[in-house]
Amino acid sequence: MTSPRPSTVGRVFSVVALVEAFTWAGLLVGMFLKYVTETTDQGVWLFGRLHGGVFVLYVVVALVAAVRLRWSWKVAFVALAASVPPLMTLVFEMWARRHHLLAAPQARPARTGAAGRDRDGDSVLA
User: Fold this and answer.
1) Given 15, 41, 104, 121, which residue has the most CB atoms within 10 angstroms?
2) pTM, whole model, 2 decimals?
3) What is the pLDDT along the chain (126 residues), one digit of tens a residue?
4) 52 touches 90 (CB < 8 A)
5) Secondary structure of 33-101 in HEC code, one letter for each residue
């Protein structure tokens, strides 16, 4: 069986998760330049603003995805918590993609076995 394609909301979530991680990385580089090498604060100035805006966008998109894609409250909580540590939105996005949580609910493979497990026996935090 082939993997279901991500829905439109799932694709938007993936893009925003990637951009959020990119701005986090830019902010980290900017902080290194400002506080370690003490050469410039332009990276913090630019990526601080970009990251702040994309962070808010990620939270909104994660909440929309949680409702539209019918994520459990645990999955929604993990998606939101992933926005805090650097680059964890990418880790969550890869996990959600692997567990078909970015596809429309009706397009997902049926879960079998123990509660909260997919066909491979992996937990999906249901």
Assistant:
1) 104
2) 0.84
3) 567 899 999 999 999 999 999 999 999 999 999 999 999 999 999 999 999 999 999 999 999 999 999 999 999 999 999 999 999 999 999 999 999 999 998 888 876 444 455 555 555 555
4) no
5) HHHHCCCCCHHHHHHHHHHHHHHHHHHHHHHHHHHHCCCCHHHHHHHHHCCCCCCHHHHHHHHHHHCCC
- For 42, the token pair is 């332009």
Neighbouring C-alpha atoms within 13 Å toward the C-beta of 82: 26
- As beta bridge partners, residue 117 has 123
71 Cβ contact partners less than 8 Å away, ≥ 6 residues apart = 65, 79, 101
The two tokens of residue 74 are: 């645990």
